[in-house]
Here is the input.
Amino acid sequence: MRLKEQILEKVFLLSAFAAVVGVILVFIFVSIKGIPIIKSIGITKFIFGLDWAPTDKHYGILPLIIGSFIVTFGALLIGAPMAIGTAIFLSEIAPSQIKAIVRPAVELLAGIPSVIYGFFGLIIIVPLVRMVFGGSGFGLLTGWLVLAIMILPTIATISEDAIRAVPRSYREASYGMGATKWQTIWRVVLPACKKGLMGATILGMGRAIGETMALLMVLGNAPVVPKSLTAPASALTSIIALDMSYASGDHQVALFAMGIVLFLISFSFVGLIRLVSSRG
Amino acid sequence: MRKCSRRPSGRPKLLALLLLVSIGTGCARGGAQKTVSISGSTTIFAVAQAAAEEFNKRNPDVKVTVQGGGSSAGIEAAITGAGDIGMSSRDLKDEELKAGLVEHIIAIDAIAIIVNPDNPIKKLTARQVRDIFDGKIANWRQVGGKDVPIVLVNRDEASGTREAFLKKVMEGKKFSKDAVIQPGSGQVRSIVASTPAAIGYMSLGYVTPEVKVIEYDGTRPSKESVFKGKYKLSRKLKLFTKGRAKGATKKFIDFFLGDWVQKNIVSVEFIPVRG
Here is the structure.
């Protein structure tokens, strides 16, 4: 019995360790391939360069960074309130029959492959945006709408957990004071789980900035600082995916260096979650 | 993050796998090369696929596998040895010239300029096309069409078609950066087919009735107009091998250039190099 316990302990330790080793290995590999960028192109020219044209040997990724951030924050702006609304509805309002429909639907949404979201965007949202705003239909706005749906389940499920973690006694006390349901939710429950909601939102942000396939299909892939929300744009991830198959030399180094940039952005999101959840 | 690793690694991994397979089977059968892997231009892909099928039928001891990836990927594979043959719809760039590749011209192809069927425009001059793709002309009204902004659809930089178009049409001017970029001719076609104000270009072999081909500089692209040299937007489609082709690779290339493939497969979509 004792032996079995020990073995199990080691097995779990090993699996936990695998995650750490995985992160470190990926980071080291991407860094080794990407760091030569400092010598070959120059870090300022790379990060702040406005011209991404691999065939002309121009490797400035600022337009792609800007694209990545605008598409992420726009998706959050649309997706986060919707997701938190869903979470409130599920945990505070919905009767159990409706819950039985909505919750599996949200969970299913999380399991749909991103290429399917891209396809959905291409077939439904691109023509819709084109009809309403003219132009090609490809661009940031389309990216926002597709990504908003994609990050909804991430934010909604974690927010729901956070809301449920608020002790029942808080609600009972609020009702006891004569507060309505809305007052209880808005003034008592939500402030009590503010941290959890923020954590959920940041996690959604991480999901959004790393999204690739769907963006490749709906953004239009023009490597420019977008002039409008309905003009074609690019994200770091989608350009890596687009170029990886044929890139060589400096171009390939630039793609790996973009991987480092994405890594650092992801790290800072994780750091942000830690910061938010450690503050009292 | 986890999703982004899927697509980029797909092709190189497959190529590596192909290489392994080719080494593996080659050794197993006493050193003779029995697998030929061919990859690159999506323009040539369908034709190469059809030729490979017939070749495999006639030569059961040799296995020819065909992959896309774009001209640049094909040339890269031929240079590094990840593949036996690279398909390309563009010429070699300076840095690729030194790699010792041998070219085999398999067909001549026209690049058609396409618009949405609802677009009243029927023809454009070379200069108008250049100004449109350069971004100088941004509204269809400027070339006699409706008053709507032009939606440019361009190919990605791995594309040989893009490279050929750049060389033949743009004459030193750069492509407008505001274009929608798509990684394949199929995507370009479907966007132009569904977007009223769109303009794009692709191999004549890829054109379907969903899109409208316009006259370029007074000539419609067709096998005859290209053959007679009237249609200016044509290019050679090539296979590249590292050094002179040998063994099964040579056999396949000879088959590709032979009468049967040229007559029954190549001539359906392109202009054959013979007859």
Remarks:
- The CA atoms of residues 55 and 121 of chain A lie 30 Å apart.
- Chain A touches chain B at residues 53-56, 114, 127, 130, 134-138, 206, 210-213, 216, 220-224, 227, 231-232, 237, 240-246, 248, 262, 266 (CB under 8 Å).
- Chain A has 13 helices and two strands.
